[in-house]
Amino acid sequence: MGDWPNGWEQATVRKVGGESSVRLITSPLKHWLGATAWLSDGIGGERPLADRWLVPISMLRGQRERFRHLRPLSLELSRRLDADAELLGKLQSMGLNVYPTDGERIGPELLDALAEAWRSERVPLGQFDIFLGQLRHAWQHLDVGKEFPGAFLVRTAHRHFEVVDSVGLTGVYLPNDAAKERALREENKPVLEMEVAQANRFAEALINATPVRLASGLVERDVIDGALWGKAAEAVRALEETRYRWLAEPLLAILAHGGTNPTGHTTTAWEAALHRLRGAGVIECGSIVVELIDGNETIAKGEPAARWLSGDVLAVTNEVGLSYEELAPGLQAMLERQDLLKDLLLVLGPLEGVEIPTLKEIEKALERAQIDAQAFADIRSRWVGNTGLVASRIRPVAALLGVGSAGFEKAAADLGRLTDWLAANLPQWDAAALMTAARRSGDDYAMGMVAWRALGDVAALPAWNAVLDELGAEYKPVRNRDFGEQTNAHLEGMQALSTAIARAVAVDSGEPELFRTFEDATNAFSAPDDWSMQWWKVPFKAVVDALCDTWREIVNSEHLAVLRGTETLEQFREAIEERGIAIEPDPYEIAHANSERFSSVLLDVHDLHRTWLEFRDPESRLPDPPKAPELAADSYLRRWNDTEFWRLALATLGDERFVHACGDASDAQTVRDRLGLDEEAVKRKRREREKEEKETARKAKKVEIAGESVEIDTIDYSAMLRRHEKTLNDPVGPRASEGEFTPLGPFSREVGGGGGGG
């Protein structure tokens, strides 16, 4: 096999005649070692290295069946490779695959192998969840800079995949939105299998490379009793005020201890579900219709018995009655999980027909999902804190409205008594609505935002923080978490208008460079940090005034004076129009058109230049195409004329003789006339050059290997080896006899041992 350290993995190809050319290619030997079946470990049979996987020993020990569809190396050989990094590196270079761990990034080989395993029906029926986990693991470890796999696994039904190529992703959805993904799965629509986080990581690249569609682009439309959801919100009651109030505790227990991989009650997701349930509402109705819309097309339509709606509301049809199993799909959506349906059905089934199940009945039902009474008791203790949390949210509201704390603290011990007390003492806010807001608010920030929307400026952010400060250590001042995004939203809305202002200032001042200076200042603008303590929602006026101050530092234009103080985008637009500032055409479209036109003219001038040189001196070395320079600042402000394009193109060439010969010509025909060039002759010369360039490129690839003339990009190593196997020298050292394979035995290292094969 040769001496490994001496570079047997590559072959050097040199041209023996003509212009010198040297290329490195994969050697026929390395190709053969990677493409033929020679490795035998007594388990996987004789297969090419590219068909085998080295799985980490810690994952393989006692769990080989989990990876059988990947044809993993034996545990014995895996140990040997784990102890010999050099040997492992050589086998990897020849195609051996290594299962990724930790933060490793790899190419598409694991995804391709899993797709082939599914297509070949090598995945046992009982290992679907294991296979699903490996598939998601493969997407997690795929390097976003690598190629995508040649085959994709698309979920088309429960526990079923279809294997498709990139073209087959037409009509398939990328699950980059959890809620939309659930809706697609419920309707058995084709979904590219991966987790939401990975779908978002690869979204841009997949959209550009394949016809896959974004799930986030879908629109879900919920129709409750014939009305689009949102119009019947007054019929919503708090979960705790309905006959479904007993559901919260078992649901939280199932979320913590159920599913494929129980995560417990210490996760952020569990805490978020706890807050959702505390603020959840219920609407009982006659019918629910769910439509999934892609553009103008309704791709799915269903009539579920229960549905988790926007606004944290559970819709339940009257036909459900006491058949709680009908609630399972909607409750799973409420918990934002996809693996709890089986446990929900196990628990809800035995409770059918019981209007308000007792604690013992719920504990017995939970045992069917292997959730014991002690675990449930722990969940219940966390839920019971509900009364104290609701009171904690309402206390700042009472203080804000000047209500004494003594009566409030007495009423806060019981939710019913607290509701009555609020109705009697806080007429500014409907008691039921206030209780619902308190239940749904996860923290003082959320409660303050709701209070501001309900009460107006009396609950402005500075006033809210003042109350929180007065209430003591339990409360801390809050900040507007979204002030940056709110500011950017205003900037995006006024983008075309601010660009129009930049152009007007540049034109009026006679300084074209001011356009880019204004635009750069606008793009660099960001909200001052102290805005996060001033407003729940950053006002448009604050952004405009701050932006005008920024612009005034560049130039004190009279346009800016009338823009300050505008309070809405519409007022801002009207102020611009009153100043006679034109919004259309877009300066960037003008610049793009100028750039495109100049590139075209530059190529025409370059072509004429080369033809002129050829006629003057056929032996001269023709210049390469020139690189187009960045256009001047006024290219954003007006469309250039042909004369300007031609003069700039001639200047870009840098050949003074040619410029002088062209004189004041400003179009191709005039230049040809001045230079004495026939149009057909110019076209003929162009065709000759293109033909010569193609031939030169082809010859550069053509070399002689083993007495044969071949093009480098089309070498068939297997065929070449078959034709020349009789002339190849035998490798140095021992070798297996023809047709025989030598199993790799236990690892050992001897001083002075021979190197080479395996």
Keywords for this structure?
flat, about 10% strand, 4-stranded antiparallel sheet, 4-stranded mixed sheet, about 45% helix, alpha+beta, 33 helices, about 750 residues, single chain
Please tell me the overall pLDDT: 85
Radius of gyration: 36 Å
- Spatial shape: flat
**Class inferred from helices and paired strands:** alpha+beta
Fraction of helical residues: 40-55%
Instruction: Give the percentage of residues in beta strands.
Output: 5-15%
Largest sheet: 4 strands, antiparallel
Task: Report on the architecture of this protein.
- This protein is of the alpha+beta class.
- Among the domains are: 162 residues, no CATH class; 60 residues, no CATH class; 102 residues, no CATH class; 90 residues, no CATH class.
- The chain is 47% helix and 10% strand.
- The strands form seven sheets. The protein has a four-stranded antiparallel β-sheet, covered by helices on one side. A four-stranded mixed β-sheet has the order 12-13-17-16. Strands 6-5-8 form a three-stranded antiparallel β-sheet.
- α23 runs antiparallel to α24, α28 packs across α29 and α28 runs parallel beside α31.
- The longest helix is centred in the last third of the chain and has 30 residues.
- The radius of gyration is 36 Å and the shape is flat.
Please summarize what this structure is.
The chain has 758 residues and is an alpha+beta fold. Helices cover 47% and strands 10% of the residues.
